[in-house]
Amino acid sequence: MHLLLSGIVGSVAYGLAGPGSDTDRIGVFAAPTVAFHGLHPPRESVVTTDPDVTLHEARKYALLALSGNPTATELMWLPDDCYETRTAFGEELIAIRSAFLSAPRVRDAYLGYASQQFRKLASRPADAEGRRRSAKHARHLARLLHQGRVLYATGVLEIRLADPGWFRAFGERVAGGGLDEAQALVAAAEAEFDRVRSPLPERPDEETVERWLLAVRAAYLPR
């Protein structure tokens, strides 16, 4: 495994981490090119929970990012202090990050993941643990909607939130019984996506992404 790019994502990167927050990491690695031709192809992803690390092989990562997957996408937009590994191929990936973006996929992905958080909110019990988890889901719902709207409107993904206190307060209000407020936020985001004219293209630039991937494959041929 050749690690190309990795960093700290999630609550720590957003500025939402609290005393009990986990530190989540994500990365991209390249498997040896020859391994794809054997009986047992390399694993597409490697996931551990202690510590919380998710690593995707280069092709799997590229496909996730091209689909608009928020967690995969944010790796290319992290603040400098959140990166832990930056190789030459990692720097190239950051340089072509806009090639992965398209207006329809950004809209669908961020609204879709926010809707998942809303469904989790609606099914949580009202006990202390349920309220704690509801606050977390509500924060992530608001964060996804905010990031998606900014990315859709500007072509730039905001990772570190300018006002993390607002998101924490929103989470507590929703967890305390403000489900209607969360539903209203989703509806407002849907309306804004409909209203805003995005500078993003209709389709991502797959040719640029594929050139990067083929260069990775060429670099990790047996020598």
How do the helices and strands line up, and which of them pair or pack?
Blueprint: E1 2-9, H1 11-14, E2 24-30, E3 45-49, E4 52-57, H2 58-66, H3 70-74, E5 83-86, H4 88-95, H5 103-122, H6 128-154, H7 164-175, H8 179-195, H9 206-219
Parallel strand pairs: 2-4
Antiparallel strand pairs: 1-2, 1-5, 3-4
- Tell me the name of the CATH class of the largest domain: Alpha Beta
So, CATH architecture of the largest domain?
2-Layer Sandwich
How many individual β-strands? 5
Name the poorly predicted regions. none
Fraction of residues in H or I helices: 40-55%
Biggest β-sheet: count, sense, barrel? 5 strands, mixed
- CA(first)-CA(last) distance: 16 Å
What structural class do you assign from the helix and strand content? Answer: alpha+beta
- Tell me the number of helical segments per DSSP (H or I, 4 or more residues long): 9
Gross morphology:
globular
Q: Give me the side-by-side strand order of the main sheet.
A: 3-4-2-1-5
How much strand content do the residues show?
Answer: 5-15%
Integer tally of domains:
2
Protein name: Nucleotidyltransferase domain-containing protein
Pfam families: RlaP
InterPro entries: RlaP (IPR018775)
Question: What does this protein look like?
Answer:
InterPro entries: RlaP (IPR018775). This is Nucleotidyltransferase domain-containing protein. It comes from Micromonospora tulbaghiae. The structure is a single chain. With 223 residues, the chain is an alpha+beta fold. The protein has 2 domains: 2-100 and 205-219, 2-Layer Sandwich (Beta Polymerase, domain 2), CATH 3.30.460; 103-195, no CATH class. The protein has 9 helices and 5 strands; from the N terminus they run βαβββααβαααααα. Strands 3-4-2-1-5 form a 5-stranded mixed beta sheet. α6 packs across α7 (164-175) and α6 runs parallel beside α8 (179-195). The two termini are 16 Å apart.
